[in-house]
Amino acid sequence: MLIAEVFGTCTFVQIGCAANAVALYTHNSTTMTIDWQVGVVWALAMTVAVFLSAALSGAHLNPAVSFSFALARPADFRFRKLIPYWAAQLGGALLAGIVNLFLFHQAISHYEKKMAIVPGAAGSIQSAAAFGCYW
């Protein structure tokens, strides 16, 4: 059951953050450079992730959703399930980040050189933007 939550969260975060990475690290007319295009990819990623995990885990895919279910439907989703679900979701998101780092490491290096970004410096958040939902 929890493996479905890992794979669902990983799928959602990996595809969505990959869209962020493509939009951020590649700037040409054939890539996604408009926010709505990235948003559509995130929506499709969520759809795929829900189809992958709904039957087995309920497709929470987010710790806030799991917490909400525990509050709103305690008979169906007990509080004792929160920590395992949160761990599965964190593991899936971490796995997605590792996959994207592997896929985009050359693009990240090129982007950092082009933009004169020093890893760890104040401006390095620009190159990390593809790994989170902050632009």
Helix and strand arrangement:
Elements: H1 2-25, H2 35-57, H3 63-72, H4 82-114, H5 125-128
Brief sketch in words of this structure:
GO terms for molecular function: glycerol channel activity. Belongs to the MIP/aquaporin (TC 1.A.8) family. It contains five helices and no strands.
What is the molecular shape? elongated
Number of distinct beta strands: 0
Specify the helix fraction band: 55-70%
Report the CATH superfamily. Answer: Glycerol uptake facilitator protein
Question: Which structural class fits the helix and strand makeup?
Answer: mainly alpha
How many domains?
A: 1
Distance separating the two termini? 33 Å
CATH architecture term: Up-down Bundle
* Beta-strand percent range: under 5%
Largest sheet: none
What is the CATH top level name? Mainly Alpha
CATH fold annotation: Glycerol uptake facilitator protein
Radius of gyration, whole Å:
17 Å
Description:
This protein is mainly α. It has a single domain, classed as Glycerol uptake facilitator protein. The chain has 5 helices and no strands. The protein has helices at residues 2-25, 35-57, 63-72, 82-114, 125-128. Helix 1 packs antiparallel against helix 2, helix 1 (2-25) packs parallel to helix 4 and helix 3 packs antiparallel against helix 4. The radius of gyration is 17 Å and the shape is elongated. The mean pLDDT is 89. GO terms for molecular function: glycerol channel activity.
